[in-house]
Amino acid sequence: MKTNLESTRSQRAHHGFTLIELLVVIAIIAILAAMLLPALGRAKSRALAANDINNCKQTMLGTAMYALDNFDFLPTPGWTAGTECWAVSKNMPGGPTSAAGFAALYAQQIQYFNGIGLNPPAPGLLYQYIKNEKLLLCPEDHPNTAYYQRTELISSYVWDGAIAGFSSGRSFKLTKFKSSNILQWENDEKNPNPAGSWNDFSNYPLEGGTTVQYITFSRRHGKAAQVGRLDGSAARITYTEMVGMALDQNTKNDLWYNPNSANGH
Fold this sequence. Notes:
By secondary structure, the protein is an alpha+beta fold. It contains five helices and five strands.
């Protein structure tokens, strides 16, 4: 015969959670999720930033090989839209476009990177050294309303026009520059066309003005920026450091290094 205590235990064993208990569990799960999701997002961004570093590294190695094969001259940066440059051959069709037209225009622009389907075939200057168009894009740079407003769609990165004296002429020889000079950076995806920052494959460190609002460096990966240097390396440096160099109007630095100018501008 069961005692009263045993009967109570038996009844409890067959009961489920109360509504209050379920609500408490759900609240705890929600709190834990809220705590973990930002950390997971930051971890994902850091992983994609590592992919960015690899993109810059491979492109810089291709640039070094190009210079070796071309009497030390660097590829042209693409200072003027429609000109042959490191990324594409000349007369590439450009945007803006729409969500419906994006895929077709993107595919057309890729043809001007690899030369396939053009008559005669005419790839960009670095194609034979890097081959893969995925090296031109940050994995977090996804098509959206701002993206569709760009002229060039196939690259997240731009080159420093200092290597050509901020002109549409031929680039200088690699030996004209310091190894630490920054050649490539990730352009600001949130501001697609300030003074034409996406109209070609090359920019000033300050595009269209002289104040911080004309900075074109992406902040996609937080407080640091992925860059490619003229020694063939890639690096992750602070956004603050990039801005400081860009705003310097008086002296040469790793962003302002035009050989034709005393202050690099």
